[in-house]
Amino acid sequence: MDTDALTAGLLQKLRAAKPYPALSLTMPTHRRAPDNAQDAVRLRNLVSEAGSRLDADPEVTREVRAAVRKQLDRAVDEIDPRRALDALVVLATADEYQIWQLPRTAPERVVLSDTYLTRNLVAAKAQAQPFWALTVSADHATLFSGTSDSAHEEHIGGFPLTAPREAPNPQREERIGDTPSTFSGEETRQFLRTVDEKLRGVLATDPRPLYLVGLAPALALLDEVGESAKGAVGRVTKGAPADTSPSDLLTELRPALEARQKRFAAEIDGKLDEARGRRAFAGGLDEVWAAVREGRAGLVAVEEHYQQTVRVDQEHLVPVSGEAAGPADEKVREDIVDELVEAALDSGADVVFVADDSLKEHGRIAAALRY
Q: Please, which residues bridge with residue 97 across strands?
């Protein structure tokens, strides 16, 4: 699965307590050759490590061990290397398995617990900044789920929608003198009311920024007959054929996506400047980590590709190099940034990812504090 499938409801299920052992396997992957040649070897080694951990765990019975191994083997057989992104996460119990391809790197690790490890999923979802895009016309509406570099059509909430076709009515045309305008007919208004109703349901279940694509009369009528589209963050006034491809959609949306990103970056800079002015600002990994743990962070900004391995030393974070981090050292956290992101979101903070080097003077990560 991709990160845009990680809804709040699914995350809650993943975090729910499970019969021990719930196995989580994470590793970095590569999108292209020749680097991706090493991924299969890494995966094979991690699966072997997982088997050894299961064999050595006295809490795991023979039957459960065999069942978890079977689920893990099924997951490995299903992994498609052609879909590889920047990390792979495999989750398995005796009864199920899940495969996640992430656009954010994750360290090599095998974890046995009574819940799945979700920090890398949550951080990747936050970084991806998924959005909804609705293409709409007088007789069809298609919903797409997208990120900055990918999109796909969604079949949820009643989408795609097609207006019912009515047979021509010459007598009606004679009475009114002409064929009615496409966007003045009651049938079109009713169709767009239905679109608004379905869109409202999707946004309630999974709130995301919304982009609209369609001719100006279609977008104007959608605004007139409903409410859900009025909060759209970007609009592209261009015809939207029913067979619009995801790649064509991204091309059309690119200017709107880039414009919103610039507005968004300026807004985040303003919030951080305001926090500095009222002395409610934290900069650097150690300060932000402390603020998040205390529930004081209201906004956390992280550079896109910031990753750091640390050792926890008396509740402080001491950066270490990968070579200096022993695999058996329980105080070493390879994915501390992802862990921080998950903890911040759990505390109710907003988490945003910003361009690399934009927070260089603040240690790559910063927070505006509630108090």
A: 92
Alpha helices in the chain (DSSP H): 8-15, 39-56, 62-78, 119-128, 170-176, 186-205, 216-225, 246-277, 285-293, 336-346
Spatial neighbors of 42 by CB under 8 A, at least 6 apart, are: 27, 28, 108
Closest CA to 304 of 362, 347, 358: 358
Strand order in the sheet with 365-369: 281-283, 365-369, 297-303, 350-354
Residue pLDDT, tens place only, 191-244: 999 999 999 999 998 999 999 999 999 999 999 999 999 999 999 999 989 899
Q: What is the pTM of this model?
A: 0.85
d(CA 70, CA 96): 10
Contact present, 196 and 228 (Cβ < 8 Å): yes
> Which among 133, 138, 127, 103 is positioned nearest to 256, based on CA atoms?
133
User: How do residues 270-283 score in pLDDT, each as one tens digit?
Assistant: 999 999 999 999 99
Name, in order, each residue with C-beta under 8 angstroms of 27's C-beta and a sequence gap of 6 or more: 39, 42, 43, 46, 87, 88, 106, 107, 108, 109
The one-letter code for the residue type at 298 is: G
